[in-house]
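Supplementary Note 2. Why include the ligand at all?

Several targets in our set were suspected to adopt different conformations when bound, so apo predictions alone were not considered sufficient. For every target with a known small-molecule partner we therefore ran a joint prediction. The input for 2'-monophosphoadenosine-5'-diphosphate is given below.
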Amino acid sequence: MMDQYGVMGCPIQHSWSPRIHQLFAKQTNQSLVYRPILVPPDQLEQALHTFQTEGGKGLNITLPFKQQAYELIDKLSERAQLAQAVNTIRFDPDGSLFGDNTDGIGFIRDVIHHHQFPISDKRVLILGAGGAARGILGPILQESPALLVIANRTEANANALAAAFSSYHESVQACALSALTKFEFDLIINATSASLTDAIIELPVSLLGKQAYCYDMMYGKEPTPFMKWAQKHHVAIVSDGLGMLVEQAAESFYIWRGVRPDTQPVLEILRL
Ligand code: ATR
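The joint prediction is reproduced in token form.
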């Protein structure tokens, strides 16, 4: 039997991960199966157990289970501990579960390498204070931005997230979305789930720096409302989160197989 991998989530049919991992497997001559696994919201623990007893080797974990998975893991990487969320599980031969989080490194590789936009000394704005924002915060701070502001609809959630990371960097600040009129930024990241419902976040144009980069962590065939807003205001670089998705997948693949796929050709196929 071929080695078994998969992605667990709810819903899961929309996920591009099976296609990405099949392309990686073909490119690197690895013999494996990777399938989407729909898990009802209260059944993650049982689903992990079933997958393991059937000989599964590794999983990706997506919405809404990343934080729940974090609680169920035996050994956690430093990245997963910082994010308090797990998106990659490796089932080790001794029966233990190793949990990692490759979202942050996926984001960094996409922004710095693919889009050639260094983050050091840049003024960075993260919109949103949920799991997606938490996952990228640590890796962004490691790049030493000049300023990092977390802005959120519910200000208290932004405050709590900034407080959790303030010991890593002195320039983490939090504010409400409505308070963004006094700042200007070089990199603006939409880490809210607003794009899922096509909701528009009201943002002042004055927050756009001269050579600003607007990044939406969501991906899809159409530009998100945030991307359309940025395009309308002639932002220098606008991108969706597909590059990040492919990069986080490549890092997961490496954790499982010890082989690092070339992401560029896969990204090109997905953009067709
Ligand atoms: P995820 O794990 O994807 O980050 P989450 O933890 O539910 O999901 O967080 C969603 C984030 O998107 C939150 O920051 C949420 O703001 P609140 O804390 O105020 O709920 C934000 N969000 C969702 N819909 C939004 C909208 N229409 N406008 C602005 N922010 C929105």
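The domain at 104-240 is CATH 3.40.50.720 (Rossmann fold). Residues 128-133, 152-154, 157, 192-194, 199, 201 surround 2'-monophosphoadenosine-5'-diphosphate (CB under 6 Å). Comparable summaries for the other entries are listed in the accompanying table.
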